[in-house]
Design goal:
two-stranded antiparallel ribbon; 9 helices; 6 strands; 63% helix; 264 residues; mainly alpha; two-stranded antiparallel sheet
Length: 264
């Protein structure tokens, strides 16, 4: 990559996504017509297609599955539930590929040298900041912003569980920092606004809610599980041959004869 120092090359993609998202949200805040917003959506889809060309097929599939799942949730949460609303009352065309970019940002961040060496440290830092934000939503938030934020009651346990128990700590830590910045920018620019009280749940929320990364943990879980199901469906069935098979260790510790052990 010309012009980029060698030690910074693993982070060039993340810098590009950060700059693009910032420019995208600012541009959307200045749009006056839906046609202008649709153009931003086309550009964002094109950007996602471009950067995914450098991803292996399993990662591409995982990202597109997340885009599909996130789009469904967006249509429900904004259009039906009404927990937040966009400027024009729609789900902007740039939102689905935007979810894909943020997810790809987190997946690749977990593989960077910095995260590989200090992934647990970043995870604990993310959890500490999430905890402070959650406490602030109950205490200083109403004084500074005039809104109580009790959303952490639902979101903080999910995020904390993912940080402590998951093997993908780096992904969730990166998702926390990326989605927190995204939500703070999007609400500050007026791209979207969260309801003061979540319909049906009657739960007070901030704008944005604290620990919104907890929702992205659920998206990652859904996308990764869906990707595994598709991968299993695509894998050709293996034929047992008890005479010539080599034993393969199963999840329960018993030797199970298969002709070959295919990589997942």
């Amino acid at each position: 990559m010309l012009g980029v120092p060698t030690h910074l090359r693993p982070y060039a993609f993340h810098a590009a996504v950060a700059v693009y998202i910032l420019a995208l949200l600012y541009a959307d805040s200045q749009t006056q017509m839906l046609g202008q917003q649709h153009l931003l959506g086309v550009l964002t889809f094109a950007f996602l297609f471009l950067v995914l060309r450098f991803s292996p097929p399993p990662e591409r599939r995982r990202v597109w599955l997340l885009v599909l799942i996130a789009t469904t949730i967006e249509l429900f949460s904004s259009g039906l539930w009404g927990v937040y609303a966009y400027r024009f009352g729609n789900v902007p065309l740039y939102v689905p590929p935007g979810h894909g970019l943020i997810y790809l940002f987190a997946l690749r961040a977990a593989r960077t040298p910095m995260m590989a060496d200090r992934g647990k440290t970043f995870g604990l830092a993310a959890l500490a900041l999430a905890t402070l934000w959650s406490v602030g939503g109950f205490t200083v938030g109403p004084l500074l912003f005039g809104r109580l934020d009790a959303s952490a009651v639902l979101l903080w346990p999910v995020f904390a569980f993912c940080i402590w128990k998951s093997s993908s700590t780096g992904v969730y830590a990166a998702a926390f920092f990326a989605t927190s910045a995204l939500e703070l920018l999007g609400t500050a620019f007026g791209n979207w606004t969260w309801a003061a009280v979540a319909p049906v749940l009657h739960l007070a929320m901030g704008n944005p809610p604290s620990v919104i990364a907890g929702a992205y943990c659920v998206l990652d879980f859904a996308a990764s599980r869906s990707a595994r199901l598709f991968s299993a469906a695509d894998r050709p069935p293996q034929t047992k041959n008890l005479n010539h098979a080599a034993p393969c260790r199963s999840a329960f510790g018993r030797g199970v004869p298969w002709i070959e052990e295919r990589p997942r």
